[in-house]
Write a structure and sequence with these properties.
seven-stranded antiparallel beta sheet, about 300 residues, Jelly Rolls, mainly beta, 15 strands
Length: about 300
């Protein structure tokens, strides 16, 4: 039968017209299936071969932070030296994340010291310093007051001058530790001279100069053959006597003066210096108010 004009339109080929399994991968030309021919959500993860998506298949800037699972980027996934200082957040490095021994003197800026505010006052006992305890790498603090014990006070800063505020009765033929019960000055440490004991305990090892003068007033004549001794002792020991001076009685009743000095080395903070008196004159004799005792540190 002949047709004039258009031939009748043939119905489109639908999926139901194609037998199952007729169209195989081998029947599809390369590049024949384009994105527009693929239904939405038709390609699932199950349809993608393992390792089929390579870096070459990922467009530049295609992976955004929203597409990365929390904690998906591990240390093993970060290249060495990939993270530099420009990627640190201010304050993100705290002491817990600094390994022991990592902060060295070379890492301290010069301004840590030169840029610090001046103390603006004399150094006080309570001020603190950092130090390496025993040069063993253990950093500890120390108060400025401890420096006095280590280095000692400068010469002359540990000093005192004491005197008698009234006469002192001293027994005859008795070794007597003299107590000068008043001071005109008493400086250094915690007042090194004790007016209750008569002892000079500076609390710092070193060399000291001490001097003492006593005015002895017998209640009656010395008496022929009577004598007196003035002594300076270290730690009250008779084996550590310095500047001992004596006087033989002359038979007069006037006051008799004794004066002596000594340079004494104290070995530790508990050593002390004191003055001792012995006489054989009449009982009830006095050391008068003209008596005094003083000293200071030499080195």
């Amino acid at each position: 039968m002949a047709y004039i004009g258009k031939q009748p339109t043939k119905a489109p080929l639908t999926a139901s017209d194609i037998e199952d399994g007729i169209i195989t991968a081998a029947k599809i030309e390369d590049g024949a299936v384009v994105a527009a021919e693929i239904a939405s959500n038709a390609v699932t993860t199950a349809k993608i071969n393992a390792d089929a998506v390579t870096s070459a298949k990922i467009a530049d800037n295609a992976v955004v932070t929203a597409g990365i699972n929390a904690d998906a980027v591990t240390g093993a996934k970060i290249a060495d030296d990939a993270i530099n200082s420009e990627h640190y957040t201010d304050g993100s490095i705290d002491t817990a994340h600094i390994a022991d021994g990592q902060v060295t003197t070379a890492k301290l800026a010069t301004a840590v010291f030169t840029g610090a505010t001046d103390i603006g006052a004399d150094i006080a006992d309570a001020d603190l310093f950092l130090m390496d305890d025993g040069a063993g790498g253990t950093i500890r603090k120390t108060a400025a007051s401890r420096l006095k014990t280590y280095a000692g006070s400068p010469a002359g800063t540990l000093s005192f001058q004491s005197y008698r505020s009234g006469d002192l009765s001293v027994s005859a033929t008795t070794q007597t530790e003299l107590v000068f019960n008043s001071v005109s000055h008493n400086s250094g440490g915690s007042t090194p001279y004790n007016t209750s004991t008569g002892r000079f305990t500076p609390g710092v090892a070193g060399t000291y100069f001490v001097t003492v003068n006593v005015s002895f007033a017998p209640s009656s004549n010395w008496g022929t053959g009577a004598n007196g001794y003035l002594k300076i002792r270290k730690n009250g020991s008779g084996s550590n006597e310095f500047g001992q001076i004596s006087n033989q009685g002359s038979g007069d009743s006037d006051d008799v003066g004794f004066s002596t000095s000594a340079v004494i080395t104290l070995d530790n903070s508990t050593d002390y210096i004191s003055c001792w008196w012995y006489h054989t004159a009449n009982a009830g004799s006095m050391l008068s108010v003209q008596s005094w005792y003083g000293g200071f540190r030499l080195a």
